[in-house]
Design a protein that fits this description.
The structure is a single chain. This protein has a six-stranded mixed beta sheet, sandwiched between helices. It has 162 residues and is of the alpha/beta class. The protein is 42% helix and 17% strand. The chain has a single domain, classed as 3-Layer(aba) Sandwich (Rossmann fold), CATH 3.40.50.
Length: 162
């Protein structure tokens, strides 16, 4: 199964995460990596552009693709565009509570889960916040280049929120 996820929409439904946390995206990605390790599902999480993001960025790690919408576009727009390109709708799902995104997914015959429902699935496999539960994390080997890319990507967010 391949999931398209509205990242900030999902963060808003996670009781262990806060949208005003400068590390909220990184923490969500950690939950998603655990979910990926448990289910084998491929995950693409798309975050809305913020003032600290100047260009669209895409990173991949441990079966999770992280995309930031380019300035002037929303995660919802990117998800709807991707839905129009889906060739095998039975193998796809969308995580969003946005009605327009849900409607586009249904029109594409793609499975829809509200962010709250998907958050419950994430928490079933990871009941504690990622930083508080290091013992159950799946170890993923990253190359030095991948580590640098992740640090650059999330450092931008952290630096601009301080």
């Amino acid at each position: 199964m391949q999931w398209l996820i509205d990242g900030h929409n999902l963060i808003g439904q996670m009781p262990t995460l806060r949208l005003d946390d400068p590390n909220d995206e990184a923490k969500l990605v950690e939950y998603l990596r655990r979910y990926r390790a448990r289910t084998g599902h491929r995950l693409t999480v798309i975050f809305d552009a913020g003032p600290e993001y100047r260009v669209a960025e895409t990173k991949k790690s441990g079966g999770v693709t992280v995309q930031f919408a380019p300035h002037g576009q929303t995660a919802d727009q990117m998800i709807v565009r991707r839905l129009r390109q889906v060739k095998n709708p039975q193998g796809w799902g969308v995580v969003s509570s946005d009605r327009a995104v849900q409607q586009a997914a249904r029109q594409a015959r793609v499975r829809v889960l509200a962010a709250r429902e998907f958050a419950q699935q994430l928490l079933q496999s990871s009941p504690a916040a990622p930083e508080d539960d290091r013992g159950s994390q799946v170890e993923v080997k990253l190359s030095p280049e991948e580590i640098d890319d992740w640090l650059k990507l999330f450092k931008k967010s952290r630096v601009n929120h301080e």
